[in-house]
Amino acid sequence: MTFQSTNGQGNLPANVSSLSALLYESYQRYVDLLAGGAVRDVDVGGVFHASAVGHPCQRYVAYHVQGFPPLWPLDVNDRFTEGRLHDAILKEVFNQSKLPVLPAKSITRTYTAEEGTTQHAVVLTGCPDVVIDGACLLAGQDDWHQGAPIPVELKAVADSRFTWMQTKQAYTLQATPWWPRWVMQVQCYAALLQAPLGVLVVKNKESGELWQQVVPAMAAQQWQVLIERLGGIMAAIGQGKALQGHPKTSQLCRECPYQYACHSGLEGC
Predict the structure, then answer these.
(1) Widest distance between CA atoms in the chain
(2) 269: in domain
(3) Structural domain of residue 2, as residue ranges?
(4) Tens of pLDDT, residues 61-103
(5) Are 19 and 65 members of one domain?
(6) Does residue 99 share a domain with residue 18?
(7) Could you tell me the CA-to-CA distances from 138 to 6, 11, 142, 212 in Å, in that order?
């Protein structure tokens, strides 16, 4: 591979012209290490995160709980990076407001899933973007929940999605791959904080307009179904059983950060 100089001085030196090839080789070597399980985040392994448990693909959740590092496609990673900037701005807005904002911190609880006569420990953790002490704004009115910490999750989306979301009914949103995951993330925070509800605040990246959705805490039966699902994933990993995935041609699969492991046929997932 040869690169032409932009200053008219001829070709670049060989060691520079091969830089792209070297970077690609290093990248591919890292991907191979990931696929082989040589790189793991041991601090993450064995713990389910609230932001991941609502993902519709069991394999995604399995790789996440095993501590596989996510390798996001560049366009998806760019969206996340931009979204974090908007989140930081929104957090500051909350901190400067008159609402009683508590310091946000990570919370971890252990639950029990039962499979026949076998029990599996399900460790769940999460850190809400914002926690409000005893009060939150609901539909323009003050609705007080004295003493209950209310988790608030912040999201930022493009103008087209923001407009689309506001015009759709709940059942339509529920059919998307991302809305149920956001809702379950807030419900997990509510469960970890033992709160009666949570709030999802969505920001329009272009206009700065905000849209909020109150998310009731998950009913006890629903919560147990979730814990059983997570326990089943842990059991499948321990037994080396294959978990159901999604078609490789689906958008969910194309944007998945665990393609390198999933497509390699790694055992246990």
Answers:
(1) 75
(2) no
(3) 1-35
(4) 999 998 888 888 777 777 777 878 888 888 888 888 877 788 8
(5) no
(6) no
(7) 59, 64, 6, 9
- pTM of structure: 0.77
Determine the Cα–Cα distance for residues 257 and 195; give it in Å rounded to an integer.
32
Q: Helix/strand/coil (H, E, C) string of the chain? A: CCCECCCCCCECCHHHHCHHHHHHHHHHHHHHHHHCCCCCCCCCCCCEECCCCCCCCHHHHHHHHCCCCCCCCHHHHHHHHHHHHHHHHHHHHHHHCCCCEECCCCEEEEEEEEECCEEEEEEEEECCCEEEEEEEEECCEEEEEEEEEEEEEEEEECHHHHHHHHCCCHHHHHCCCCHHHHHHHHHHHHHHHCCCEEEEEEEECCCCCEEEEEEECCCHHHHHHHHHHHHHHHHHHHHCCCCCCCCCCCHHHHCCCCHHHHCCCCCCC
